[in-house]
Amino acid sequence: MQVISIVNLKGGVGKTTTAVNMAYELAVHHNRRVLLIDADHQGNASKFYGARASTGSLADLIEGRAACYVDLVQPTNYRNLDVLPSDMSLLSADLSLVAAGGSARRCLSDLRDAIMEDGAYDCMVIDCPPAFTAASVSAIAASTDIIIPIKLDYYAIDGMRELVSQLRQIQTITEVHIAGALITQWRNTDVIRQGETWLRMHEPCPVFDTHIRRTDVVDKSTYWRKPLAECSPRSAATADYAAFVREFLGEEDTDRGTQI
Ligand SMILES: Nc1ncnc2c1ncn2[C@@H]1O[C@H](COP(=O)(O)OP(=O)(O)O)[C@@H](O)[C@H]1O
Ligand SMILES: [Mg+2]
């Protein structure tokens, strides 16, 4: 089973946008049974898919209040796509995870193992907060693939170096596979093009060939709470997320019409 964590220590780089759209693409266009896990107390991925954490959330799993993940999972309007939501209660759960020490940090690995045993999903996509919290470290440790969304600005490359070196530290404790950095909010300007070239030349980790163009409909999709492919099927960012997921899966970059 694939466990994909979307990680960056910065906010506003497109983690949640990547998590919600990647989960949708995998579920609807690639027929994978996907569990999207919200590991950020801001709960943006949960809100996006209309999942309410008040009836059960990741915090309940971490703090042992829920006997089984099945009780916490909520369906979305889309086939093959469920959500395990979070809200602010994840903050205190996070503290208890820290207090409980190493074994509790296996929380998301235990969840992965339980899901594999049940054969309930083909992949987990985990939207992480912009910090190393106990929940995000637990997510990273459970992952088969780490994706690092990156918004190219002056500080981005330093930030990414720092992140990759911290991920490598976690790697000394557990196996961590960085699938690659994904350039988001790309614009056709000199500065962005130079930043992209620089990043690809001095990459501290692999960089996906596909970049995600900056498109106003991404903001619109958050208001509509619909994945890009549903909200604006012909937008540049929709095509880019579809191409990115094909690249991630190692599929030929053919027209979507032949993919379905
Ligand atoms: N490709 C894009 N084009 C335009 N706006 C984007 C794009 N990707 C993300 N955004 C916007 O940037 C903001 C931050 O994105 P978000 O995914 O919430 O980042 P993070 O989860 O890393 O904090 C949001 O307002 C989102 O709509
Ligand atoms: Mg986010």
UniProtKB/TrEMBL annotation:
It holds the Pfam family AAA_31. CDD domains: ParAB_family. Transmembrane segments: none annotated. InterPro entries: AAA_dom, DNA_Partitioning_ATPase, P-loop_NTPase. It comes from the Bacteria. Residues 1-174 form the AAA domain. This is AAA domain-containing protein. It comes from Butyricicoccus pullicaecorum.
